[in-house]
Design a protein that fits this description.
The protein is mostly beta strands. Helices cover about 5% and strands about 30% of the residues. It has a single domain, classed as Beta Barrel (Sortase, Chain: A). It has an eight-stranded mixed beta barrel with strand order 3-4-5-6-9-10-8-7. It has a two-stranded antiparallel ribbon with strand order 1-2.
């Protein structure tokens, strides 16, 4: 299997993983490899999703530095703080919503595979894993300065649509939200740019730093960036299926513009 950043599989065992540059043995080494169907994945039970925030609740703000943060400080962990980065994927109390393309999915926190690639778990064709979003737990959490990195499958075993089938339709100006089910806070991000990268470009440091932030891309714990801005990156596969993987990656980039409270369940 060739190298790639995110998963887009049409058959069992034909998997790829989100790329990351991980610090190994004191040297920065690019590690991007295919996942295998035997990888351990936690069994996840999804709670009843909260209602989507009403369009009127979406803030019209502009990106501003998040207050109360010190540049260079390590970002605190409130989600899966006890899990090692090499622990299996597990549910987090978040939902990812992109109303303009009809996406509203539960989220798994993922770490690294034994090969130090960011995990992109899968399962049989009927598995709920194809309908999940994958947040990299080593990066920023919702609302934090830095990059909240979200990936997802474009299709599942057999080629049927998966969670991010329509991601390529998202456009600059669209709003996406991360719902924190613990507090019912909705973190609103505005998409600022979309791009499509071939494998070589996608695996380069410049793109990886944009997707994960410069700390994560070089294997360091995520810290508050100098500009203190909170960003999001959303990744899936694109391009041509070569029998093993897709040859391009589609990425949407955005900035945090505000937060609102989600209405309580009926």
């Amino acid at each position: 299997m060739g190298d790639a950043m995110v998963l887009g599989s049409r058959r069992r065992l034909a998997l790829t993983a989100v790329a990351a540059l991980i610090l190994v043995g004191g040297a920065t080494e690019g590690v991007v490899r295919g996942l295998h169907g035997g990888d351990t994945v936690a069994v996840v039970e999804h709670a009843t999703p909260p209602p989507s925030p009403s369009p009127g609740a979406t803030p019209a703000g502009t990106p501003t530095p998040t207050p109360g943060w010190v540049s260079g400080a390590t970002l605190p962990r409130s989600l899966q703080a006890s899990l090692d980065l090499h622990a299996a994927a597990a549910a987090v109390p978040l939902r990812f919503q992109a109303p303009s393309i009809g996406v509203d999915v539960p989220v798994l926190g993922v770490g690294l595979t034994p090969r130090n690639a960011v995990d992109a778990p899968e399962g049989p064709a009927g598995s709920s894993l194809w309908d999940d979003g994958f947040w990299y737990r080593g990066g920023a959490e919702p609302g934090q300065p830095g990059v909240f990195a979200m990936a997802g499958h474009v299709d599942r075993v057999g080629g049927a649509p998966a969670a991010f089938w329509n991601l390529h339709r998202i456009a600059a100006g669209a709003m996406v939200g991360i719902v924190d089910q613990r507090t019912r806070t909705v973190w609103h991000y505005r998409i600022t740019e979309t791009d499509e990268f071939d494998d070589r470009t996608a695996n380069g440091m410049a793109v990886l730093s944009r997707i994960y932030g410069p700390d994560v891309a070089t294997g360091r714990p995520a810290t508050v960036p100098a500009d203190k801005l909170a960003r999001i990156s959303i990744i899936t596969c694109a391009g041509t299926w070569n029998g093993t993987q897709y040859d391009h990656r589609f990425v949407a980039f955005g900035d945090l513009v505000g937060e609102t409270a989600s209405p309580p369940p009926a």
